[in-house]
Every structure is written in C-alpha cells, then in structure tokens.
Amino acid sequence: MLLGASLSGAARAQNPSEQMPPLRSASEIPAQLTARTYTTLSSETSARLDRIGTRVGEHFNKGDLLIVFDCKTQRAQVARAKAVSTQAEKTAAINQRLANLKSIGELELDVSRAEVEKARADLAIANAAASKCEIAAPFDGVTVEQKAQAFQYATPGQPLLEILDKRSLEVELIAPSRWLAWLKPGYGFAVHIEETDKTYHAEITRISGRVDPVSQTIKVFGEIHDNAAELMAGMSGRANISPPK
C-alpha cells in the first residue's frame, strides 16, 4: 500500500497539467482604465484669473468657457489697433483719389497702402493676444483636477485644469510578448473591474510597437463594448484573454 501511494504521488508530481495553474488563471493579467482623450489646460498669457467655470467632478460641453482671465489691457490694445487700422484705410482711400487726379505720386500712394497692411497686421496680433484671455473646453468632458484658483495671477505655461473625456475610456494591459503570436486587434476578451465588481466585454484595439526586453511584455489597449456609464478612468481589475483553441 505504501509503495502504491508513493507511485501514485510520483505520477501526480510528473503530470504537468496538475503542476500548472488552470488556463483561466494563466490568461488573466492586470488591467486599468485610462482616458483616451485628456489634457492639461495651461495659461498662454500673464494675467489675473477672473473666473474658473468648472470644479472637480463637474461635467462640461465642448465650447463651454472653463477659464476667463482679466484682460482689460488686451481689449484696449484691440480697440486701439482697430482705430489705427480704420485711420490707415481712410488715408489710403483719400490718397487713391488724389493719385487718380495726379495730385500725389505713386510713392505716397504705396506708402499709404503699406500703412494699411501694417495696421491690419497689428490688429491681428492684438486679436491673437485677446483670444488667449478665454479658454474654452476642447471636448465634452469632466474636470479631474484644479491646479489654480480664481483671482490668482497666472503666468504663461502654468497648468490650470486637468480634464478628460469620460466617454472615451480604454483598457490598458501589460501582456506577455509571447502572446503576439495570436493576440491581434479585434481579439475579444473579458475584463472584470474591481470597483464595480462587474465583468465587461471588450476587444483589443491596438498594440504597442515595442516589447520591453527586460520583462518580455508589451503594452496592449482595448475598448469596452458595454454601455457602462459607471466606469471611470483609474479603475482597475483583471482581463481574461484566453488563447485561441
């Protein structure tokens, strides 16, 4: 009996199917939800923050004003540039009539025309500076971090708001590079998200173009097909990607 038990135990130890974990466990890898569209809004001008039109967690639509600066100086420069441009155009028009009457030479006429172009360029510069006094939402999204407060003085390049498009989430995975033999865009898989305790249907959308030579892994991205409004960027879980049979 002892000999039989020993032989039976040896046979089990040599059976590779009992030594390896089940296929389901072997094909599970960590997964994290990330936003496909996100950005940090920064200041393009030196001015005082007059108003921040969104707070952390608030949703907004594309085109909504998120940040407004106090730009009295910029608006005054636009008004002055418009006045100078109008004056230059009227002067050029008068000189054109005088030139038709042979009362002035071509040089004076050309100079007045050049003044018009110069005034228009100055007006364009003033308008460009004034356009930086407001920052509109580049897409429908939600505010995830506020890095400045109203009435603070902002400098060019200073981060102000972090926003993302909650509707365009993707699943980020780190898969073994050996899976590249069969893992392709369009390959379906299931992902379980810990925060919601739900499993969702997903599909591989793109694969990174570089394998990590140390860990022998590659970054893979997928998209969840289920209509799941409860999902948020930063949630994590595990993806079950079974190899083809």
Overview of the molecule:
The structure is a single chain. The protein is of the alpha+beta class. 31% of the residues lie in helices and 35% in strands. It has helices spanning 2-14, 16-19, 23-26, 72-100, 106-131, and strands spanning 28-35, 38-42, 47-52, 59-60, 65-70, 134-136, 141-146, 153-154, 159-164, 169-176, 188-193, 198-212, 217-224, 236-240. The strands form 3 sheets. The chain has a 6-stranded antiparallel beta barrel. A 4-stranded antiparallel beta sheet has the order 2-9-7-4, with no helix packed on it. Strands 6-5-3-8 form a 4-stranded antiparallel beta sheet, with no helix packed on it. The two termini are 41 Å apart. The relative contact order is 0.20.
Describe the structure concisely.
The chain has 245 residues and is α+β, with helices and mostly antiparallel strands. The protein is 31% helix and 35% strand. Strands 1-10-13-12-11-14 form a six-stranded antiparallel barrel. Strands 2-9-7-4 form a four-stranded antiparallel beta sheet, with no helix packed on it. A four-stranded antiparallel beta sheet has the order 6-5-3-8, with no helix packed on it.
